[in-house]
Amino acid sequence: MGCVGTKPEQDPIGKSMGNSDSFNQTPHYTKDPTSKANKSLSNPTSGSDGSENIAIALYDYEAMHEGDLGFKKGERLRILQESGEWWKAASISTGEEGYIPSNYVAKDTLETEDWFFKGVSRKDAERQLLASGNKTGSFMIRDSETTMGSYSLSVRDCDQTGDTVKHYKIRTLDNGGFYISPRITFNTLQDLVSHYKKQSDGLCQSLTNPCLSPKPEKPWEKDAWEIPRESLKLDKRLGAGQFGEVWMATYNKHTKVAVKTMKPGSMSVEAFLMEANLMKTLQHDKLVRLNAVVTKEEPIYIITEFMEKGSLLDFIKTDEGNRVQLPKLIDFSAQIAEGMAYIEQRNYIHRDLRAANILVNKSLVCKIADFGLARIIEDNEYTAREGAKFPIKWTAPEAINYGSFTIKSDVWSFGILLTEIISYGRTPYPGMTNPEVIRALERGYRMQRLDSCPQELYDIMLECWKNKPEDRPTFEYLQSVLEDFYTATESQYQQQP
């Protein structure tokens, strides 16, 4: 089921850069299954503390749909109704009302600081600070992952190992002040940043520029779930798979998307809609986002975000992919484990986890695609283990033999996926046919370690390939091990300067 997915135009960091085409489209769609009842504010002019419920625009936004409210960065907006990704708001300056993307505004004044990154993990801070465009001394302050209400400072450094990121805990005083070193305290985080910009004072570097922070991707159009086929323009065929084609397309003349067209008869429309309604609720930044569907007549269209680099399998075979070094290959693995840990936590199953079903965006973020689709394919060549399309080489023995698919069979597949990554796209069990693989697994055979594969990574693969499903690790564990693959013996945070 591997394919190329899609996503709005992006900058080098991989976030949406917005669109200058102000094409307004009247909503005329089936309601999004994930939308919740509107949370109207009983007194929309007041916050919980009695203050006005005001948000500040973090970016410019040009209205794209009927009912949207455009605004400029820094503009103050009164929030009238909070409902998922789109809030109803009124401009303080003009009084105009309309819907705004909630991730383009902030109520907390701290969030308006260019150097503050809300909800970013330690690992993602490293990924963002090490991205192109940032220099030594680039920094961010982010929420602490371990201590509610506290913060961490992450700084890009360059030491004997090359470019790296150092992390410092920002501790709070009882009176509300902040400090990294108890030698000097600050009334505000702004004062702390100002001080360490002037001098390193014990940090690895003095602070220079905030980490680059492009516009976030705009939320998908409000309530646009079942959309008209004519709202899509198929621009370029990106590939063809076993069950359909993948196209780069434009939605309503303004949003770049990927469209997967399913071959008629490959699945029941009713079964697909049931699964798609569930898939739509799975939203995580390491999962390809399902935006909308076209199901009124065949072929079924599946509309997702656009991923510029295509599948991980294709990417690591390119010249660019071949230049990716081992630490980044491990990072790809950690990103996939993070997405699968979310699927695991939601009690869902992928069923077809392999490099062809991982997509890569412009900033080398890996996202899991096609989760759940394998379950509803109606094709004997795919559903029967003897079928030519069945992915035997990625499938756990209990799933091959008894059709027992669980999150633990996904863990087995993840181990096979690791071999694809470390070998830059080599097909698993090289030189062996599917029947030979089945017989070899029954004898207890496991793929041998490649010379380029660290023993510690091979040990992780072997854990994934334990014969008893219950003996295999969780994805939560795999994520933690892979994220700390190079730092397991080091403190993740620097000592107080």
UniProtKB/TrEMBL annotation:
Residue ranges constituting the SH2 domain according to the UniProt record: 115-211
Polar residues bias locations: 17-28, 35-49
Gene: LOC109066820
One Gene Ontology MF term: ATP binding
Subcellular location, principal: membrane
Domain named SH3: residues: 50-110
Entry's localization field: Cell membrane; Membrane
Topology with respect to the bilayer: Lipid-anchor
Enzyme Commission code: 2.7.10.2
Keywords from the named record: ATP-binding, Cell membrane, Kinase, Lipoprotein, Membrane, Myristate, Nucleotide-binding, Phosphoprotein, SH2 domain, SH3 domain, Transferase, Tyrosine-protein kinase, Ubl conjugation
GO CC entries: plasma membrane
SUPFAM superfamilies xrefs: Protein kinase-like (PK-like), SH2 domain, SH3-domain
Positions of ATP binding: K260
Residues covered by the Protein kinase domain: 232-486
Protein name: Tyrosine-protein kinase
Root EC class: transferase
Pfam families: PK_Tyr_Ser-Thr, SH2, SH3_1
UniProt record similarity statement: Belongs to the protein kinase superfamily. Tyr protein kinase family.
Region (Disordered): 1-49
Catalytic reaction(s) noted: L-tyrosyl-[protein] + ATP = O-phospho-L-tyrosyl-[protein] + ADP + H(+)
Presence of the UniProt keyword Membrane in the record: yes
